[in-house]
Amino acid sequence: MTSMTRILLAASALAMTSAMPAFAKTFVYCSEASPEGFDPAPYTAGSTFDASAHPIYNRLVEFKKGTTEIEPGLAESWEVSADGLEYTFKLRQGVKWHSNEKFTATRDFNADDVIFSFQRQASADHPWNQYISGISYEYYNSMEMPSLIKEIVKVDDYTVKFVLNRPEAPFLANIAMPFASITSAEYASVLEAAGTREDLNNMPIGTGPFTFVAYQKDSVVRFARNANYWGPAPMIENLVFAITPDAAVRLQKLKAGECHLMPFPAPADVEAIKADPNLKVEEQAGLNIGYLAYNTTMPPFDNPNVRKALNMAMNKQAIIDAVFQGAGQVAKNPIPPTMWSYNDAIVDDAYDPEAAKAMLEAEGVTDLSMKVWAMPVQRPYMPNARRTAELIQEDFAKVGVTVEIVSYEWGEYLDKSMEAGRDGAVILGWTGDNGDPDNFLSVLLSCASAQPGGANRAFWCNEEFSALVAQAKQTADVAERTRLYQEAQVIFKDQAPWATLDHSTQYVPMSNKVSGFVMSPLGDFTFDTVDIAE
Amino acid sequence: MTQPVANQPTARLSDAAIRRQMLAEFWFYFRQNRGAVIGMWVFLALVFIAIFAQVIAPHDPTQQYRDALLVPPVWQEGGRAEFLLGTDAVGRDMLSRLIYGAQFSLFIGIVVVAIALIGGIFVGLLAGFFGGWVDTVIMRVMDVILAFPSLLLALVLVAVLGPGLINAMIAIAIVYQPHFARLTRAAVMGEKEREYVTAARVAGAGKLRLMFKTILPNCLAPLIVQATLSFSSAVLDAAALGFLGMGAQPPASEWGTMLAEAREFILRAWWVVTLPGLAILISVLAINLMGDGLRDALDPKLKRS
Amino acid sequence: MIRFILSKLLYLVPTFIGITIIAFGFVRILPGDPVLLMAGERGISPERHAELSAQLGFDRPIWEQYFDFLGRLFQGDLGNSLVTKKPVLDEFLTLFPATVELGLVAILLATLIGVPVGVLAAIKRGSWFDQVSMTAALVGFSMPIFWWGLLLIIFFSGVLGWTPVSGRISLLYFFPDVTGFMLIDSLLSGQKGAFASALSHLILPSVVLATIPLAVIARQTRSAMLEVMGEDYVRSARAKGMSQARVVGVHALRNAMIPVITTIGLQIGVLMAGAILTESIFSWPGIGKWMIDSIARRDYPVVQSGLLLIAGLVMVVNLLVDLTYGLINPRIRHK
């Protein structure tokens, strides 16, 4: 039996019991992790958003498919005041809420839902702030919403005004992020009355292209097409997430026709997948950076020439070959090439051990021994930090630098690597949240983020660089922002607080039958435009 | 695990001549078990490989040949003569890594058994000899440890101590130790009231001397059997921890860790996945074969089976 | 008999208290901080860190947290997962049937194959069957099952394409959970092919999980049979001209089963350890995988309560084995 007939047979079996149309098109996605829950606000994992924010919900503004540009979502249009402090959103009318056995909406989406969605995260006193005890809204906090948003005003049922405390250019990109998904205030009051508030998280109601059907823990999530969707309706009738954490197993399932599309193949398998006549692979540079951050406050690493010399001693292409199996590209800037304002004019320090050695000697650095920190977990920007550290160890040995590799438990690693006076250089990286350069440059390299609680693990504080980035953040004009960011990248390269290692390539293998899938530079997986051939 | 305890050792032997005869008898029984002899030879070969790894291994196990990533074994197309069993993802010679891996496995087995055995004997002697509340407290603690599935407890312990080979060994030893403690205690309880112990006590032997010199040698047989069993389980469990990322850390060529690292190549390079597992299986099998022979030869009651 | 049971139960109380101390204590001295893990690469300000720790109750003295834990335990509250924010008990109960189903099928496989093989090997002692089966058993006993599982996947799913790669049932079947056991639920659903699908998903994982218990049971059965067959009454029965089948069936087998049943019971702990590995290889949504993931995520409430539930379960099963043993073998009771 071919997998297609199997799907058809099974689909008809499904139809008999669950009142779905016969021969319903079912699309199976082998997801990499269980969703933590279905309310996007309290969670941070991309795999959670793929199963909640993207299929079920909408936001006021959204990222245009396949880009990091902003387009209207539940807000049809918006106006920004001249001082950049007031954002007035005109809301879309006639947007229907999903329904389930407990809830059928009596009204369309309106301003109350917007206020509810933000207020419950903003205010600890809001009755829905702790609707599950012990939850917190990490994205809302880490995107600095509490200090940014002064108030949210309901102008009328279909007009909402956000008043900010300071002008902030990335604001629209921020509220296009999953945590800002709009939930139904009416559903909340129905649940409140029924005494089952946690169902907001277990049986989500949204306005998105798919409605939630069922979740079997650690195994399957099921969605169905939202027949009343305000946007273009999805082509597929049923969307199923088969939770499969192991990459090798995911690939097996894809090959066996048990799913149509999978994320994150093992880099080693990509060649074989490309050769498979039944599969195809789409690829694009991920919105990420892997780096080695020196401690720029400790001698001899406080000397930019020493850092540059070490960067020259590093064979980055060899790392891409051995660790990424080619599934990545050497990085020269702290932001990925798919991001606007990427400065392509910058020339990377060439791999030259001889020159590096001479440069170190010229700076009076001989017999240097240092630590290189390798994180214990796989991250999108770095599939195997240990292996990378081993390669760096060998490269540095050739210029007379002895490297000791150290590692800690992940939480401890994150903590200790941010301790002032840290001994050694740290391998780490970053995946962008909203596609704005500020989300990289200011979060990872500004003076402010070199403080405890920040993420500047080079402890690099360059006044000139920080001033440029801060200025860009308050500038609305994209051309002007681009110029500022490009200038900042020149300073970064000159000062070399990091060795920029890689941007990993994101591969998405899928069955040949799949059409219409659009890769997101943000790494989201969305299925409202996919179709499968019969 | 505890059945051997129930068996009362047969006739009391205290004479050197009889001891020699016992040894001969042991060898006689051991030799009869063909599997045990084969196991012994394989085990000796492993010991040899581990000791002379530096001489035997064709390459340094951590040397990365950047021009030879994932080269298949020599008999397969694309194989290269200098890498008999191929190379791994960063171009390290598989054969050399497997050879050095033998060191890890034997080291793990020896250390785990030593810690568990010494700890268990000490605790078991205390409990058995003193009895009363000492016994009660000790045995309750042992019960608590035994109530957890061993691998799960070892996992949590390693998480507490931090992933790494030494910590994995300590964790496994802690988990195994109650078996030895129980065996020792039961044997001591059995021996305590025997005439030769009473005689020694009457003759004025101190408690310590009684415990270690008089009683202990007479309950060694079940302990030795348990030790071989633990040896092989330790190798397996350490590999499992390595596989789960909680044991020896890369680039150590511990077999379980090699397997964990190789998992992503399961469909592309069979040798990096198959060979370390085979090495684990063969060495554990050899030790178990030997253990069977030992048990048959040492344990009079089971000799018949 | 009742006194025997009571004494056994009483005996469990201090053990159980010990288990709560280990489950709570070990987990709380785990290095690593769930708050930091949640923050990820971004980092977290010291103020926000303190705020979140306080919200989760981690800022209070450890003994206070322990008694709090005990107090809530007796009210049946095992806490909420830090990751999913859902009650631990709910999560345990949704995942537990998957593990039980896998474990039961595995132990059934191990018993149904292991016992006959052991009996036959004992009867035909020294034959080629005895030698081959006992060698195989020893190989099984020595098997690194995480590797064995990978090999089976490569061969049966990858090369031959006979079995599905992972999961509990083809995703195209969708029916409500009634019992949580996929084999039963698929039958109840009345959907054609659902049962076959559930069964085919169970084959490889249960074979992998059954490997070690099967080997142990076969070996134990063989030696128990040999021992019983050497006893005087069996020899005399045989001398009296009783047929081999009758001797084996009536006398030997029944007596040999006592230690075998104990062995089977004691495999529960082995199964639990095996389930951790098997579930993580086959993406089986059970409690073994849940525990590993939770340890990695420092999800304290899940690890604590999960350890407690698993240890409690092993304890209860061991008690049942003890009691059964006491019933079958009255000598034990009076010891």
Structure description:
The complex is a heterotrimer of chains A (534), B (305) and C (335). Chain A is an alpha+beta fold and 534 residues long. Helix content of chain A is 31%, strand content 20%. Chain A has 19 helices and 19 strands. In chain A, the strands form 5 sheets. In chain A, strands 11, 12, 13, 14, 15, 16 and 17 form a 7-stranded mixed β-sheet that branches. A 4-stranded mixed β-sheet of chain A has the order 1-10-9-8. Chain A has a 4-stranded antiparallel β-sheet with strand order 4-5-7-6. In chain A, a hairpin with a 3-residue loop joins strand 8 (210-216) and strand 9 (220-225). With 305 residues, chain B is mostly helical. Chain B is built from 13 helices and no strands. In chain C, helix 7 (145-159) packs across helix 9, helix 8 packs across helix 9 and helix 10 (232-239) crosses helix 11. At the A-C interface, helix 1, helix 5, strand 10, helix 10 and helix 16 of A face helix 2, helix 3, helix 5, helix 7 and helix 11 of C.
H-E order of chain C = HHHHHHHHHHHHHH
> What percentage of amino acids of chain B are in beta strands?
under 5%
Helix/strand/pairing category of chain C: mainly alpha
What is the C-alpha radius of gyration of chain C, as a whole number of Å?
24 Å
Number of helices of chain C: 14
* Average predicted local confidence, pLDDT of chain B: 83
Question: Shape of chain B from CA axes?
Answer: elongated
- Give the proportion of residues in helices of chain C: over 70%
Task: Report the C-alpha radius of gyration of chain B, rounded.
Answer: 23 Å
Mean pLDDT of chain C: 83
Oligomer: heterotrimer
Distance N to C terminus of chain C: 13 Å
Largest sheet of chain B: none
SS summary, helix count of chain B: 13
What spatial form of chain C do the alpha-carbon principal axes imply?
A: globular
How many β-strand stretches of chain C? 0
- Please state the structural category of chain B: mainly alpha
| Percent of residues in helices of chain B | over 70%
Largest sheet of chain C: none
